Each structure stands twice: as C-alpha cells, then as structure tokens.
C-alpha cells in the first residue's frame, strides 16, 4: 500500500492499540502503522480458532509491543487503553458456523466484550479514536443489489446478530458519550496473512491452500455473486476512518472490487496460480440455511465522504495472495 501523505502526519509518534492484531487484517494494519511511525501495541488472545498467528508480524521485531490477552478479561483492559490515541477494534469470533454451534462464546466475544471495551474507554480514555470492524453479514439476504448502508439489517446467523449489537454499542457510545467511533462493514477481505487452514474467516483461503497442495477446489453452488476487498485497500479504509473528521459516528461499506460468481472466482484462481482444478458441488444443507445468496456492496458513501475506493482488482489480489503462500504456506497450516 502506498500511504497517503496525511497518514504520516496523523500517526507518526502516536500510540495505537489494535485488538486482534495478530490476525489477518490486524497484522497488515500493524505493518502499515509501523511504517508510518506509530507506536503500535497489539492485544490478541491467540486462541487457535480465531486466526492469530505470530508469523503475521515476522520481521517487525520490537517495533510492535505484543500482549497475549483476551478482550473478555475486563480487569486488564484499562491498562491497555490508557494513553492510547487510536483503537482499531478487530478482535472477534468470525466463523458463522461456529456461532451457530457455540452461540454463547460468540455472544461473549462479539457482543458483551465490545460493551466492556467501550466502558473501559469511557472511564479511562474518553478521548480515544475508535474504528470497529463489522461485517456485511448483518444485512442478511439482500432485498436489492448492490447493498447500501440503508438496507434493512436482518442477520441470518448468531454471528451477524452479535456483530450488529457490537456496531450499535460503538455508535451509541460515540453519540452519547463522545467516544468518537466509526464502523466499517467488511466484505470478503482477502490477501497475504489470511487464514488458510479452514474456512473460519473466508473460503478463499481454503481454496488457495488446496490449489497449492494440488487438491481440487470444491465450489458449492457456483452461481452466487460476491465482491471482495484486498487487504491493503481495507487497511487504507481503516486509516482513513480513524483520521477523517467526516468518519466520526459513521457506518461505511467496504467491497466494490468487482462482482464475480464463485465459479468465476475459482476459474480465475486456477488461471493466476497456473495450476489446480475445481469441481462443482451441491451446497451442504447446514451451510445453505445461513447462506445469504448473491451479495455485492454499494461503496459510494465511503467514496463520497472519505475518498476511499478499492485500488486492486480481483485478479491482482488473488495473484499476490497465491505468491505469498507459495513461500509462507507451512507457517499457516
């Protein structure tokens, strides 16, 4: 990512806390902030199912302070929050299927812990600037396409319900308590350092692993339309959301890389990798119940207010991600 000149001025020497910072997006965000001269602290539970991986910060050494702690641990939060200028709140349980089989844990992490974190901000650092990572899953099955921020919110799984509650807490604390917050609704973020061992974050990671291991990719259904966000573009959106005055109290969709069917995505992945194959399969019954069908985002609001647009094509994103895992795959299995 080529940083905007304003970012260096905004972040140089400033203290930044990233919850979930050993994960996919958090670690890429940490790398960008270090390059901008920020003083970065990471809070991550490193629970195996949730995506944290120390390899994600390889090469940064002591440029980042890493604390293995859980956002559910209420007594420890004030210590981490005091003195911070920015909070990028990415800690979460991201698996839709896990939220259905273990809804209580999803509630604790994606809902209750978010309220606890914001209460700690209110009491110990009310001037902090907060950006919360939400999900397009809260829209549910779209009434119309592309989906804008005015679309009805009808989550189809426990994860979506709890992420929606997390959003509302951030917006409430921004409007009532002055904890300046912004919500970004993420859409199928892909790129280096994404989880590839299973589909808890995104199915694309599993596909890339299967391609590189010489296994055929399974495409369920195939005609569903999706759009995506390359991780560098997502990082830029987080940095803009934290620094642009028009972002405070706002909710913004990400995505907009270009709609593609799952069949078309698999075909492009095989082409850019120069190897592999894919096979069409019927949608599993348990997945079908919570699948949202076609989805792609309307990102005009964030373009108009913050000046953000995706810079990366789907083909470029897949090619860069495949190249990364040709070298790094053993560290992510």
Describe the structure.
This protein is of the alpha/beta class and 333 residues long. Helix content is 40%, strand content 16%. The strands form 4 sheets. It has a 7-stranded parallel β-sheet with strand order 3-2-1-4-5-6-11, sandwiched between helices. The model has no long low-confidence stretch (mean pLDDT 94).
CATH topology of the domain at 5-189 and 230-256 and 297-310: Rossmann fold
Order of helices and strands: HEHEEHEHHEHEEHEEEHEEHEHHH
Distance between the termini: 26 Å
| Low-confidence sequence ranges | none
Largest beta-sheet characterization: 7 strands, parallel
Output the number of helix runs. 12
CATH superfamily of the domain at 5-189 and 230-256 and 297-310: NAD(P)-binding Rossmann-like Domain
| Strand neighbour order, sheet with most strands | 3-2-1-4-5-6-11
- Chain oligomer state: single chain
* Strand coverage percent: 15-25%
Overall mean pLDDT stands at: 94
Q: Assign an overall shape.
A: globular
Supply the helix-strand structural class.
alpha/beta
CATH architecture of the domain at 5-189 and 230-256 and 297-310: 3-Layer(aba) Sandwich
Percent helix range: 25-40%
Please provide the count of β strands. Answer: 13
Over the alpha carbons, how many angstroms does the gyration radius reach? 19 Å
Q: CATH class of the domain at 5-189 and 230-256 and 297-310, please?
A: Alpha Beta
